[in-house]
């Protein structure tokens, strides 16, 4: 036998440690994971390939996965929506991008009349596993059609899921879940916080559950309910209220449709008060649905009227008044104090 000692086997490569990334980077990371692990996933939209998207959410993906998996389309939202529905009907998992929220409207016919009805129309024999990614909301000093908060239009449509993350970690996990979901998902991305802060996100392919609200902070005096970019203001308002002896529970709705109302109701049963925060116009905004459910199902738990802190019933103003239009920490704090004073 040879007297030469054998060399130890090389250690298996270890995955990189999780790093702090922005919300937009978390979206890129989730898309790359699914493209890498599921050959049926394709990404399509205006400028998503060569240029990596107007917000750079798809930067580098075409170079990595090829032009057959990351497709540049014509500047035609109606065609993008039709292609997406057709691909999904044929068993693919398309992830389309609407460049801005206000560009969704030409897509509505395909989304509402076809994507949302496949399961119903075929009595469950066909589904439509597509995701429409939509940069959403105000706060970036963009012109008209670039700052819409139009989520309530789609929460009214049977057959659609409506999802909106509020942090890098939830953006990653919820997008993975949306792509794996067999029914169509409208995935709104709050562009005001695309690069506002970073969070450690493990690129491990672990999806977060859809159809649940996330309790981000426990409290006993008032429940703050929000989604998207406004969750950050709600958390900051909770800090201000804590300094004044008011304990606020903060809930991120995350999936607006279907709504996990049970989590909101359980919180209001503890606190007796609720402040709903969203940047869409007040009239018929999704906050009105939550307030109505509270009136129907939780009236005897409430000790004060439900407060809503919202945008105004106007188009978002350009440009100097834009931040005045959006709910602020001060407005949320004032609403919580009104609720406290009322009961």
Automatic annotation (TrEMBL):
Which UniProt keyword terms apply here?
Oxidoreductase, Thiamine pyrophosphate
Highest taxon, organism lineage:
Bacteria
The family database entries (Gene3D superfamilies) matched by this protein are listed as:
3.40.50.920, 3.40.50.970
Under the heading Pfam families, the entry gives: Transket_pyr, Transketolase_C
GO BP annotations, alphabetical order = branched-chain amino acid catabolic process; response to nutrient
EC number annotated for this UniProt entry: 1.2.4.4
Q: What class of enzyme is it?
A: oxidoreductase
What this protein needs as a cofactor is:
thiamine diphosphate
Renumbered to this chain, the signal peptide range is none
Q: Which GO terms describe its molecular function?
A: branched-chain 2-oxo acid dehydrogenase activity
Q: Which residues form the Transketolase-like pyrimidine-binding domain?
A: 21-196
Which PANTHER family does the entry mention?
Answer: 2-OXOISOVALERATE DEHYDROGENASE SUBUNIT BETA, MITOCHONDRIAL, 2-OXOISOVALERATE DEHYDROGENASE SUBUNIT BETA-RELATED
Q: What is this protein called?
A: 2-oxoisovalerate dehydrogenase subunit beta
Query: Which species expresses this protein natively?
Result: Luteimonas chenhongjianii
Q: Which lineage do the record's taxonomy fields give for this organism? A: Bacteria, Pseudomonadati, Pseudomonadota, Gammaproteobacteria, Lysobacterales
């Amino acid at each position: 036998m040879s007297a030469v000692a054998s060399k130890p086997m090389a250690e298996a490569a270890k995955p990189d440690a999780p790093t702090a990334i922005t919300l937009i980077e978390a979206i890129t990371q989730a898309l790359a994971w699914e493209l890498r692990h599921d050959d049926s996933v394709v990404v399509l939209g205006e400028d998503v390939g060569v240029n990596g998207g107007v917000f750079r959410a798809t930067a580098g993906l075409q170079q990595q996965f090829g032009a057959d998996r990351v497709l540049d389309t014509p500047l035609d939202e109606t065609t993008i929506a039709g292609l997406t529905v057709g691909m999904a009907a044929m068993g693919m998992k398309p992830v389309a991008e609407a460049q801005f929220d206000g560009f969704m409207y030409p897509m509505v016919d395909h989304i509402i009349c076809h994507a949302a009805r496949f399961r119903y129309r075929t009595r469950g024999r066909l589904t439509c596993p597509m995701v429409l990614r939509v940069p959403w909301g105000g706060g970036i000093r963009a012109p008209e059609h670039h700052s819409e908060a139009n989520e309530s239009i789609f929460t009214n449509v049977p057959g659609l899921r409506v999802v909106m993350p509020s942090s890098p970690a939830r953006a990653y996990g919820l997008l993975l879940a949306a792509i794996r979901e067999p029914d169509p998902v409208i995935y709104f991305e709050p562009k005001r916080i695309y690069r506002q802060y970073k969070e450690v996100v493990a690129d491990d392919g672990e999806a977060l559950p859809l159809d649940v609200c996330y309790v981000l902070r426990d409290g006993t005096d008032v429940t703050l309910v929000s989604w998207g970019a406004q969750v950050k203001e709600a958390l900051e308002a909770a800090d201000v209220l804590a300094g004044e002896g008011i304990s606020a529970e903060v809930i991120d709705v995350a999936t607006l449709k279907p709504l996990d109302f049970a989590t909101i109701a359980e919180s209001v049963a503890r606190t007796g008060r609720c402040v709903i925060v969203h940047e869409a116009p007040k009239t018929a905004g999704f906050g009105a649905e939550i307030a109505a459910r509270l009136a129907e199902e939780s009236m005897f738990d409430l000790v004060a009227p439900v407060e809503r802190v919202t945008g105004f019933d106007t188009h978002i103003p350009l440009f100097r008044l834009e931040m005045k239009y959006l709910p602020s920490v001060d407005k949320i704090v004032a609403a919580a104090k009104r609720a406290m004073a009322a009961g």
